[in-house]
Amino acid sequence: MRKIALIGWMRRHPIWSALIGLLVAFAIYKVATPTEPAYEYVAVPAQRGDVTRIVSASGKIRALNTIKVGSEISGQVSRVFVDYNSPVVAGQPLAEIDPTRVRARVDQAEAQVDLAGAALAQAEAALARARTDIEIQNRDFARRQELSKRGFTSKTGLDQAANAVAASRGGLQAAAAGMVSARAQIRQREAELQSARLDLNRTRILAPTSGTVINKLVEPGATVAASFQTPNLFEIAADMSVMQVEASVDEADIGEVRVGQPVRFTVDAYPDQTFAATVRQIRTSATETQNVVSYFVILQVQNPEGKLLPGMTANVEIITGARRAVLRVPSAALRFRPREADRPKDAAKPATGAKRQTAVWIASADPYKPQRRTVRVGLRGEEFVEVTAGLKPADRVLVRSRSLEKKSEEPEAEEDEEEEGQ
Description:
5 helices
């Protein structure tokens, strides 16, 4: 009866019956037809190539040997002979300090030497007189002794002659001491004269080595005060064809840096050119800035064209490891994990305390059913990682997922928590 009534109702309402039929058919179609995912996985093949591990840092370019030239005497600068970037050779005059006062000291010291020479001449004459006097007194004493034996002179006269001999001997000793004093005065005055002449020579500031003037800190008319410390007047880069980079390396990376490792760096002045350098020294003295500890690594770089200038900022990459023609995959492949619904049920996380393993996900025949593959890795670089076991060339590893609706890449997936234990 119900079936007959339904058929009758459909005959009386054909339009409504058609609409209901369409809705039922659409619902059956949606249920029976699977929904296409709105995303897809991006896979790249494992290939052979180079893997490089680098330590990034920044630093300043300095001259390999920078010499600060100062003045050891005080005075007013009368002339300056060089300017910035002036090439100089060893012994070339750089500046001159007014020598008037120092030259007066030289004249005074020369006069003192002459006075000391005259005093020495007087002491020599006094010594000659004392020697002559003692000879006379000795002869007189001997004569009186002969007369005393014959009874022609008194005891008093003989004593007076003996006293005269003793006095002449004292005079000889005094004259000899005067000679020693006069000669010491000569040496003292000559030393003062030598010091004054040395200061006169120091009024001309000379280049201690050949190079290029990279800094000039004095102008004519300036007063130089060298009372407590030597003031710096110029800075000379001894050799601009060889430079050094003082790179600041974070404490987390300093353990990978070794003397002799190759380095590449760029400077803002030549952004399209890469310069090569070598690690020359690792300084053990730490520098702490805002609770960040770093160490200076000194890099040596050839600069035959003179493009690198002191003070430039260098963006440094220290190559701490390299492998050539090895099987590699992008570093993102080790971090990527497919969506939970696409993972096989047996791809469970390792138990707590178990050794952690490194794994990648391999594309299979079904693009939404990737396979998990445990691998052993070697050198880890920023872009690529060396795979030593677990993969073969042409295996396609997943690196990210991509939306099919927006035609743009989604964030690079979830990071793989199952990384290899160290």
